Amino acid sequence: MTGFGITMVGLSVLIQRRYAQICAEHDLTPAQAQLLCMIKDQPCGMRELAPLMGMERPGLTGLVIRAEKLGLVQRDSPGRDRRAVVVSTTPFGQKTVEALYADIDASVPDLLNDLPAAGRASFEHVLQALAEAMKSPMLHPKPGAC
Questions:
Q1: pTM of the model
Q2: Residue 92 within a domain
Q3: Does residue 139 belong to any structural domain of this protein?
Q4: Nearest by Cα to 67 from 40, 48, 47
Q5: Tally of domains within the chain
Q6: Which pLDDT value is given to residue 144?
Q7: Are 19 and 101 within 8 A, CB to CB?
Q8: What CATH number does the domain containing 81 carry?
């Protein structure tokens, strides 16, 4: 019998594969998709965005530059400090991230199609409770967090 940790990692791999597949269908890398998801509801400063995404600022800068070249995001320097950069979605980026969200919501749960309805409902309940307990900014973006 496989240990619980190994089972969790295996499930994570299956989910990440499905996620990468969905991202590719939208011509996005998973990192670009994560960036769009983080700024979907509001612009965010680079200084605040880097730790939320688990990236160093130079890596985030490169990601933002590439996303900007694709027309997904825009950078602005509010106020007098030109070093302070805020990233937001463009209309194209917003449309892309909304379509991405819809496809993720429709496709990722398909991984559970082989579970009976009661098992699927139990899994969803446990997963929601786990997401609440983790308090991750990826799971619970807070308005005004950026």
A1: 0.84
A2: yes
A3: no
A4: 40
A5: 1
A6: 43
A7: no
A8: 1.10.10.10
Beta bridge partners, 21, equal none
* 27: nearest Cα among 87, 74, 88, 97: 97
Domain that holds residue 93: 4-134
- Residue 143 counted as domain residue: no
For residue 45, being part of any structural domain is answered with: yes
Q: Which residue has the tokens 């299956």?
A: 14
pLDDT at res. 112: 87
Single-letter amino acid code for the residue at 68 = E
C-beta atoms surrounding 131 within 10 Å: 13
Q: Report mean pLDDT in 10-residue bins for the chain, 146 residues.
A: 86 93 96 94 92 92 97 88 86 96 90 89 88 70 48
DSSP string, the chain: ---HHHHHHHHHHHHHHHHHHHHHHTT--HHHHHHHHHTSSS-EEHHHHHHHHT--HHHHHHHHHHHHHTTSEEEE--SS-TT--EEEE-HHHHHHHHHHHHHHHHHGGGGGTTS-HHHHHHHHHHHHHHHHHH--TTTSPPTT--
